[in-house]
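Structure request: VOC domain-containing protein, Sphagnum troendelagicum.
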Amino acid sequence: MKLFTRKDNPAQKKTYAYMGYDESEMRTTVLEFEYSYGVEEYDLGTAFAQIAIGTNDVYKTSAAAQQAGAKIVREAGPLPGLDTKIVSCLDPDGWKTVFVDNRDFEKELEPAAYSCRVTAMPNLKPLKG
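Returned structure:
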């Protein structure tokens, strides 16, 4: 995988990495990895938080998810400080899925939105299992 972007967020004590298998974030599936400061080890079963999927309308997606029986755990709307609209729900087995507005996410991917770009993340530790 190629590291597209790394964002440090000291206020939340987290580092985010965005990775994928293409040359451009705009042409591939992008995975977001999150490292919490001070966490020395992640175990299988506790390291996975959620999967995010792009959608053209988080409000319609929220309604469809509810109609299909999903439990909404974060109502559709913008995230504070980012203005990216999302909706978060749990499937019947309790796994979280976040639906992210495609246009808002594309704005987040613009190079001006990031303070730095790097090619390695030496502070991240691999999962054990």
